[in-house]
Structure formats: C-alpha cells, structure tokens
Design a protein that fits this description.
Layout: H1 5-14, H2 20-69, E1 81-82, E2 89-92, E3 103-106, E4 108-116, E5 119-128, E6 135-143, E7 149-155, E8 166-176, E9 184-194, E10 199-209
C-alpha cells in the first residue's frame, strides 16, 4: 500500500511537538495568570485587614461616646472643650449640683490592643480612683475566649506598645448649645497609627445629649 507524500508530511508535522516560541508564550500566559491571582489575593487580604481596623475604630468610638454619656450634665468632664487635631486638657472647678473638686479634664486618650494566646488585651490611658484622689494612670482590660473580662488600673505611664499591638488615639470635642440650645454635641475621632505594621486610618462619629 502506497502512502502519498502529502500524507507523510502531515504525519511529520503532527509528531514534531511544540516549538520554543510556543513554549515561551505558554509560560508567559501562565506567569501572567499567576501574577493576577496573587494580586487578587493580596487585595482581598488588604481589604480584610482594613475592615478589621475600621471595626476596631468604630467600637472604640462608640465606647467613648457611651462613657461620656454616663456623666451628669453638670459634671466637669462634660464642660465644652477639646480638639480633634491636638491633645487638649483643662482644669474645671466644682459645678452645682454636682460636687467635684478642681481636676484636670483630658479630651483625649490612647488605646493599645493586642491579641495573643487567645487573649485580647486592651491598654487605655485614663485615671485611677475618684476625685479628689484620682491619679493619672492606665487601665489594662483582658478579654478571655469564654466572654469574661478582667480589668485593673495602674498609676503611672502606660508601657510602650509591643510590635504586635495596634495603637489608637482618641480625641473628642464637646460643643455647648449645638445643634440646638440646651443640648451639647460630642464628636469623637479615632485614629489608628501603627507605623511598624504600616497601618493607618480614622473613624469619626457624633452624638447629641442634654
């Protein structure tokens, strides 16, 4: 049985395999696809981390608003003042019917949050004790996996944050007779500033109370 020349040529072409150019193109396409997948995964991780930061900021802002809302309207801590761009303090005297000695009122604090060994530790600057014996210090709050928490206050300066900690600065402003006469508006700004992790971000919220 004779095989024509054209048939032999087809068989030769079909069995010669891939050329170097085809291999290079295939590698290029595969590499491009892998880079695209890696970029997508990185963006997803970035958005996930940013969402976590935003959640932490929102919780800290709400927590501060709730704390300030507990004070009576005549309390020195409810006197108009504060700034969202700088750490500000002022000394307020007693105001009736609230009986409070002269004390320094801060319109800012700092919160350090660390999660390790299944425990979430929150270090928050503030005051230990009640006037007139209040002292500058910091609160250490430990949240356990079972939902319980323990806290204690230590006089002095809060320790420097460790590399695994997120550091948040909170500042707030109290405005009298805003937006209406007889009420006050409280605005809290939370700023995340953790250079070691390259993490930044802000969250601001307000409330109105008598």
């Amino acid at each position: 049985m004779e095989v024509s020349l054209s048939t032999r040529q087809c068989r030769v072409r079909s069995s010669r395999g891939f050329t170097l150019l085809e291999v290079v193109v295939a590698i290029f396409v595969l590499a491009f696809g892998m880079l695209a997948v890696a970029w997508l995964i990185n963006r997803m991780n970035l958005h996930s981390v940013q969402s976590r930061y935003m959640t932490d900021e929102a919780l800290l802002a709400s927590e501060k608003l709730e704390d300030l809302n507990r004070y009576p309207s005549c309390d020195p801590w409810m006197v108009a003042g504060g700034s969202l761009t700088a750490d500000t303090s002022q000394t307020n005297g007693p105001t009736a019917p609230c009986v409070a000695p002269n004390e320094q009122v801060d319109y800012f604090d700092q919160v350090q949050i660390s999660v390790s060994n299944g425990l979430s530790t929150e270090i928050m600057t503030g005051q230990c004790g009640s006037p007139p014996n209040a002292q500058a210090g910091y609160w250490t709050i430990t949240h356990k996996p079972d939902g319980t928490a323990s806290s204690f206050c230590t006089p002095g300066t809060a320790p420097n944050p460790t590399p695994d900690m997120l550091v948040f600065k909170r500042r707030w402003v109290i405005e009298a007779n805003q937006p209406l006469t007889g009420v006050r508006r409280i605005t809290v700004l939370v700023t995340l500033n953790t250079p070691s992790a390259g993490a930044t971000g802000t969250f601001q919220t307000s409330m109105v109370r008598p």
